[in-house]
Each structure stands twice: as C-alpha cells, then as structure tokens.
Task: inverse folding
C-alpha cells in the first residue's frame, strides 16, 4: 500500500493588531462581557420597573383621593343595556 500525503495549501497568516494569530484567544474572553451586560440590564430593568410602579401608585393614590373628595364630579349614569350604539 502506498499512502499519498496531501499537504494543505499554504495559507497566509491571519493578521491581528494585538499580535498572535487570533487562534490563541479561544471562546472565553467574550463571556465576561456578556455576564456584565446581562447583570447591568437586569439591574437597570429592576430599578426602572421599581420607579414606574412607584410613579403609577402615587398617581393612582392622588386620583382616587380626588374622586373620594369630589363625588359630585363622578356621578354614575344609568348603564347602557339596550342603547349601546
């Protein structure tokens, strides 16, 4: 039996501004950024949601207080049973 060895074509080296071939980095270096951005997004979302809940609760409290103290402005009319349109 004769084995034919086929050598891969000569490819130019990859260019990196930091030096090296680019194959040395692997997949690990980007993970810390993803974890950081996920944590940052979670924290921002938490505080934005907390503020919006406070804002709407404060607004509802003021509106219900106004309705409670001025019932003459909010008199219920008859319900629309047959005259819906």
Result:
């Amino acid at each position: 039996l004769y084995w034919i060895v086929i050598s891969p074509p000569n490819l130019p080296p990859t260019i990196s501004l930091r030096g090296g071939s680019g194959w040395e980095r692997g997949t690990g270096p980007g993970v810390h950024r993803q974890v950081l951005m996920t944590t940052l997004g979670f924290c921002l979302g938490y505080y934005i949601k907390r503020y919006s809940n406070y804002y709407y609760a404060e607004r509802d409290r003021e509106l219900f207080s106004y309705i409670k103290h001025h019932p003459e402005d909010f008199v219920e009319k008859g319900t629309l049973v047959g005259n819906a349109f």
In short: The chain has a mean pLDDT of 77. Helices lie at 31-69. The CA atoms of residues 4 and 14 lie 28 Å apart.
